[in-house]
Design brief:
There is one protein chain. The protein is α/β, with parallel strands linked by helices and 251 residues long. The protein has a domain of 154 residues: 3-Layer(aba) Sandwich (Rossmann fold). 26% of the residues lie in helices and 27% in strands. It is built from 7 helices and 11 strands. The strands form 2 sheets. Strands 3, 4, 5, 6, 7, 8, 9, 10 and 11 form a 9-stranded mixed sheet that branches. The chain has a two-stranded antiparallel ribbon with strand order 1-2. The longest helix has 13 residues. It is globular.
Length: 251
């Protein structure tokens, strides 16, 4: 499969991607900027794709260990090469495996933070991408939201956090799955294409064993209300330009 080599200004990363297969979108950028990473944290990204999230978190935080888990062998191999390309082997590692069998990959309760940009379309909804990489990245072909939440709950220490970006319309399903697995929703930010438009995506942070109480943050708008309609807002532009650290208290 042909690949491209792309530069990402955040963290000065270089990323190999499939030319016609799965390519990362804005979602992992938004998620990386949403999380709060404690110094010395151990992090897992469920469904890492080309490895963009663990690479970003390694560059922008004081995490000591960032792991990406990916089911698809070609994507996992590409993620490994991206780690090597950015010389982050000492802090980032990639594991090929199925998050539905998370017990076979890592022991329980050994990570501080779990992040995920999971497939958010049901298998029977929408047009299935003809390319396997894109189909599995967008549709629940190998595990749904309940499987990702179950894996996060298994991996998290008590008091650890789970941060996810997901479809706004399926937010009740995500919240129900988290509460059922002992992860209390603590922080929510809705993502709108532009002011006046309904939210399409949501950023949600939950804490394993946390007390009830949800903080709803100000909305995030992706595009300016301009005639062209595809100009990023200043906040989104700053996400790409600002090299600032993500480290801080995950309260």
């Amino acid at each position: 499969m042909k690949e491209t080599l792309d530069n990402l200004s955040i963290g000065h990363l270089q990323l190999l991607q499939s030319e016609n297969g799965y390519r990362y979108s804005l979602d992992p950028i938004l998620l990386a900027r949403f999380v709060k990473v404690k110094k010395g944290a151990r992090i897992v990204d469920l469904g890492t794709g080309c490895g963009i999230l663990p690479l970003l978190l390694a560059r922008l935080s004081d995490a000591v260990d960032c792991v990406g888990i990916e089911l698809q062998s070609e994507l996992a191999d590409r993620a490994v090469r991206n780690v090597e390309l950015n010389s982050l082997q000492d802090r980032v590692s990639i594991r090929q495996g199925d998050i539905r069998n998370i017990q076979d990959i890592f022991p329980a309760s050994c990570f501080d933070l779990i992040v995920s940009n999971p497939p958010y379309r049901r298998f029977d909804s929408g047009r299935i991408a003809p390319n396997d990489e894109r189909a599995a990245a967008r549709h629940e072909l190998a595990g749904g939201v309940a499987d990702f939440v179950a894996a996060a709950s298994w991996l998290l220490k008590n008091g650890g956090n789970f941060c996810v970006i997901y479809l706004a319309e399926r937010l009740p399903e995500l919240i129900a799955a988290m509460i059922a697995r002992g992860i209390e929703p603590k922080r929510l930010r809705m993502i709108h294409p532009r002011q006046g438009a309904a939210a399409r995506m949501a950023l949600l942070e939950g804490r394993k064993g946390g007390r009830p109480g949800l903080q709803v943050e100000k909305p995030l708008y992706i595009y300016k209300n301009t005639t062209a309609g595809r100009d990023y807002t200043e906040e989104v532009l700053q996400m790409y330009e600002d090299p600032g650290s993500l480290s801080g208290d995950a309260d």
